[in-house]
Design goal:
seven-stranded antiparallel β-sheet, alpha+beta, 2 domains, Protein Transport Mog1p, Chain A, 312 residues
């Protein structure tokens, strides 16, 4: 009996002392950052993160560019001057060393305690921000928020089905692309043969999203499409080689192609942009390929385009 009691005690001790694992953490949909929220917080409905039932306590979980972590780390080490007046503190998390701040602030007429933490995800920075009203600080104290921050973990990939479920449209064909990445939940999707570490530009990739800007009249669609194509982010020295009206799934659309330069290595690319009109928001599909791979990339782009349907 003594041996059984001893083994039971050891098991309980290990369960209490073990670090947070990714399986324990809760990941907001589409995010690679997760954590274990304190009791009383559940999934938020209007932002990625958690909140109390009365929406008073909020915990935002999101992603920032990779360089954001380095900037905060340099501020912590004193290699970069701190102009905010709030010096970060280090914290050991399930994802490695993070940095966090805590300060008093106001949300309208309400006194609040605000916290933020940043940690490295390799190709991105994980960011967690919490706000606690003054009347809730006894329950959600500095120590409680710090303990929550310590449970933060990173997952390498978000399941493809989870990412696609967040999009305002259905994507039924992925064109055999190796990587699927949500640029922003419910906003835009990237399909690529490259990745964030190597860069997308040296290989074929696509960006799919909805935009609210639409031409006021049907006669303005050509001009609108050409202007949009030459202002695609990351594209330089763009030259339009073709722009004409087409129909996609029975709806009016415009196809525009450009030759351009893209990426830090100045890759010569051919880019196609499809705009599908109809409704208050317009579907925009962009396919970019190194020029010497265009012949094989274009049929993949078109197959993905034709597999995009409005979400019922």
């Amino acid at each position: 009996m003594k041996l059984i009691r001893l083994l039971t005690a050891v098991a309980l001790l290990v369960a209490v002392m073990r670090p947070a694992l990714a399986a324990d953490a809760i990941f907001p949909p589409g995010m690679r950052v997760g954590l274990i929220p304190p009791a009383g917080l559940s999934a938020a409905k209007s932002f990625p993160g958690f909140e109390t039932e009365d929406h008073g306590v909020k915990v935002l979980v999101t992603e920032l560019p990779a360089g954001a972590y380095a900037e905060v780390m340099n501020t912590f080490k004193g290699t970069v001057p701190d102009t905010s007046g709030v010096k970060p503190e280090s914290i050991q998390t399930g994802a490695g060393l993070g940095y966090y701040t805590a300060e008093n602030a106001r949300d309208g007429n309400t006194a609040v305690r605000r916290y933020s933490m940043i940690l490295s995800g390799g190709t991105f920075s994980g960011y967690v921000a919490a706000q606690v009203p003054e009347n809730a600080t006894k329950i959600y104290s500095d120590d409680a928020v710090r303990q929550m921050f310590a449970t933060a973990v990173i997952r390498k990939e978000v399941p493809v089905d989870e990412q696609l479920s967040l999009m305002p449209f259905n994507v039924t064909e992925l064109g055999h692309f190796k990587n699927v990445r949500t640029l922003a939940p419910s906003a835009a999707l990237v399909l690529a043969d490259g990745d964030e570490a190597t860069g997308f530009e040296p290989a074929p990739f696509m960006v799919i999203g909805l935009i609210t800007a639409t031409p006021p009249e049907p006669g303005d669609r050509g001009r609108f499409a050409q202007e949009a194509a030459t202002t695609i982010p990351g594209v330089r020295d763009a030259r339009i080689t073709m722009s004409e009206p087409i129909r996609i799934d029975g709806q009016p659309a415009y196809e525009t192609r450009i030759d351009a330069t893209s990426g830090k290595d100045n890759v010569a690319v051919t880019v196609v942009q499809w705009l599908r009109f109809g409704g208050p928001r317009m579907l925009r599909v962009i396919g970019s390929s190194p020029r010497d791979q265009w012949t094989t990339a274009f049929p993949r782009f078109r197959a993905v385009r034709d597999g995009i349907q409005p979400r019922g």
